């Protein structure tokens, strides 16, 4: 939670180096239980997307939903998701950009994307590249 000049905000941070964002929705739903189907419907409703494309990574959906749920819980006007990447080649950025596009955003290098979601909250999505010296032991 962060207090901005415009009010309260909730953020989730996803740290990455070279590992993927986990299974895609298509992989996650190979054997869909009623709970998974219900959870995906709830998340897609929060994000304002109809049918979730099977190539999106479930982890990005889940992290974003968590930020929005906390924003609702604390009456924050803004929810944000930041991927903090320490990959020297921005590995998996394409998956992040695909996610942003499905949500109706337009990925721009060097800055966050803001999107209005059905609840009226503003959702900020950003990619931050970490300094490589922090990867050294």
Quick overview of this protein structure:
With 137 residues, the chain is α/β, with parallel strands linked by helices.
Notes on the structure:
By secondary structure, the protein is an alpha/beta fold. The protein has four helices and five strands, in the order ββαααβαββ. The chain has helices spanning 25-28, 34-47, 58-73, 93-102; strands at 2-4, 7-16, 78-85, 113-116, 122-129. A five-stranded mixed β-sheet has the order 1-2-3-5-4. α2 crosses α3 (58-73).
Name its key features.
5 strands; 24% strand
Q: Determine the number of helices (DSSP H or I, runs of at least 4 residues).
A: 4
SSE class: alpha/beta
Q: Low-confidence stretches at least 5 residues in length (pLDDT < 50)?
A: none
**Shape from CA axes?**
globular
Largest beta-sheet details? 5 strands, mixed
Give the oligomeric state.
single chain
The topology string of helices and strands comes to EEHHHEHEE
**Rg, Å, rounded:** 15 Å
Secondary structure: helix percent: 25-40%
Strand order of the largest sheet: 1-2-3-5-4
Give the distance, in angstroms, between the N- and C-terminal Cα atoms.
Answer: 30 Å
Summarize model confidence as the mean pLDDT.
92
Number of strands: 5
Strand proportion, as a percent range, falls in: 15-25%
């Amino acid at each position: 939670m962060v207090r901005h000049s415009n009010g309260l905000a909730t953020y989730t941070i996803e740290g990455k180096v070279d590992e993927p964002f986990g299974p895609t929705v298509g992989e996650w739903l190979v054997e869909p239980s009623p709970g998974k189907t219900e959870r995906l419907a709830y998340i897609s409703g929060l994000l304002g997307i109809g049918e979730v494309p099977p190539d999106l990574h479930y982890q990005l959906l889940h992290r974003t939903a968590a930020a929005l749920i906390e924003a609702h819980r604390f009456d924050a006007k803004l929810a944000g998701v930041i991927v903090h990447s320490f990959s020297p080649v921005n590995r998996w950025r394409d998956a992040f950009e695909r996610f942003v596009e499905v949500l109706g955003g337009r990925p721009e290098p060097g800055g966050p994307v803001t999107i209005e979601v059905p609840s009226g909250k503003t959702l900020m999505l950003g990619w931050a590249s970490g300094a490589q010296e922090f990867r050294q032991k």
